[in-house]
Amino acid sequence: LGMGLGASTILDGYLTRNTGNLNIYLQHAGDFEKATAQVFSVDESWLIGRYLSLRLQSTNGLDSEHFRQVFECEIPEEKKTELLAQAEAGLLEETSGRFIPTKRGLFNIL
Questions:
Q1: Confidence (pTM)
Q2: Confidence of residue 24 (pLDDT cuts 50, 70, 90)
Q3: Distance between CA 32 and CA 21 in Å, rounded?
Q4: Cβ distance 14 to 41 under 8 Å?
Q5: Residue 56, CB-side half-sphere exposure with 13 Å CA sphere
Q6: 91-101: b or e for each residue (b if 16 or more CB lie within 10 Å)?
Q7: pLDDT tens digits, residue range 30-70?
């Protein structure tokens, strides 16, 4: 649950984002609808892409086993192909089912 200026929440298949305008946010504090700047529906493909993107911005990287636990499936083939290409390009290191960004890759991921 995202709270505050510009915060995002993903719940029940929707992503909502609060306004980034401090005046509007303060004027409508407590009125969720008026403080919301964006709402859009998200599907599992979007959630997977977001998850991969966020994990690859972390020095801990992406753990395939954790992905399986979260999504109850393997990393989709098209995404795995992208990850392997990133590893070949020296942006990721792949070891034991984990993709970890290199120093160069931390600023160049997907």
A1: 0.75
A2: very high
A3: 14
A4: yes
A5: 26
A6: bbebeeebbbb
A7: 888 888 999 999 999 999 999 999 999 998 999 999 999 99
Q: Could you count the other beta carbons within 10 Å of the beta carbon of residue 103?
A: 8
Distance of CA 92 to the CA centre of its chain: 17
- DSSP per residue over 26-39, as a string? HHTTT-HHHHEEEE
CB 22 within 8 A of CB 5: yes
Nearest of 20, 19, 23, 22 to residue 34 by alpha carbon: 19
DSSP for residue 105: G
Q: Which strands sit side by side in the sheet containing 36-41, from one edge to the other?
A: 8-11, 14-18, 36-41
